[in-house]
Amino acid sequence: MDDFQLLIDLHRTAERQGPGGGAETKRAMELAGLDRSHPLKIADIGCGTGASTILLAKELDAEITAVDFLSEFLDELQARASKHGVADRITVLNCSMDALPFDEGAFDVIWSEGAVYNMGFEAGISAWSRFLRPGGKLIVSEITWLSAKRPEALQSHWQAEYPEIDVASTKIGLLERHGYSPQGYFVLPEHCWLENYYRPMQSRFDVFLERHGQIDQAKAVVEVERHEIALYEKYRNYYSYGVYVAKKM
Ligand code: SAH
């Protein structure tokens, strides 16, 4: 099994594959003014195993296209959607987020939690705009600095991992520059990282290592995650995910 398969195996059974929460997804829905009063076409890009997809399907009158480049996650999403009785409202699409086959103006809403960094925030928001109808809403969460200054060690870690990490004012400026009108922004609270994402992941480490015979490769995968968790625990005041809500002009 290569490193990538190991990573999939560690994350496939998780409720979510990044920081987030049900209450926060609902808060973003409210900020975007989404409710059951109109039928909606939604694309959930980088959906993982569908934490947000399934909640959107339950809360709204929506037809949702759930996009991810990992079929293992999409299989899990479909199983969960069936359990929640919303499978008929969700279509999965196994595709890369930088090569989406959608028609221009096909969606009322583009939703993406913890995923746009894979193609880069600016590349993502600019490329996806054409799939939204005018007046359509973009809801995207993105790793964000919470202050203008931060410790050097943290800065250099993220500079290497994701140089596009920046303050909210920069991200909002990018949305404006790419033809969106910003409608709202909030910061994911700590429980979205700790209770909802890191603690459940930590509780899977031992079983994961056993399942893979304690091989060094599996240990290395766990080590990377442990390092990321320790970094968050130490520097959580300086970064989080920002949730950005914007309207296509
Ligand atoms: N939205 C989910 C998953 C976030 S993790 C949640 O909040 O739980 C990021 C997701 O993006 C993963 O499921 C990963 O498989 C997917 N992904 C990464 N690169 C991608 C790409 N190029 N195209 C489509 N999906 C991608």
How would you sum up this structure in a few lines?
The protein is α/β, with parallel strands linked by helices.
Description:
It is a single chain. The protein is 45% helix and 23% strand. The chain has nine helices and eight strands. It has helices spanning 3-11, 22-31, 51-59, 71-83, 121-128, 152-161, 168-177, 190-211, 216-235; strands at residues 40-45, 62-68, 90-94, 107-112, 132-145, 166-167, 180-187, 239-248. Helix 4 links the parallel strand 2 and strand 3. The chain is globular and about 50 Å long. The mean pLDDT is 98. The structure holds S-adenosyl-L-homocysteine.
The coarse overall form would be: globular
Secondary-structure-based class equals alpha/beta
Give the fraction of residues assigned to helices: 40-55%
How much of the residues is beta strand, in percent? 15-25%
Regarding quaternary structure, what we see is single chain
- Report the count of strand segments: 8
Which distinct ligands sit in these coordinates? S-adenosyl-L-homocysteine
Give the low-confidence spans: none
Q: In sequence order, what are the helices and strands, one letter per element?
A: HHEHEHEEHEHEHEHHE
| Main sheet summary | 8 strands, mixed
Please write out the topology.
Elements lengths: L2 H9 L10 H10 L8 E6 L5 H9 L2 E7 L2 H13 L6 E5 L12 E6 L8 H8 L3 E14 L6 H10 L4 E2 H10 L2 E8 L2 H22 L4 H20 L3 E10 L1
Parallel strand pairs: 1-2, 1-4, 2-3, 4-5, 5-6
Antiparallel strand pairs: 5-8, 7-8
Helix pairs in contact: 2-3, 8-9
This protein binds S-adenosyl-L-homocysteine.
The site of S-adenosyl-L-homocysteine (SAH) has 20 residues, from helix 3.
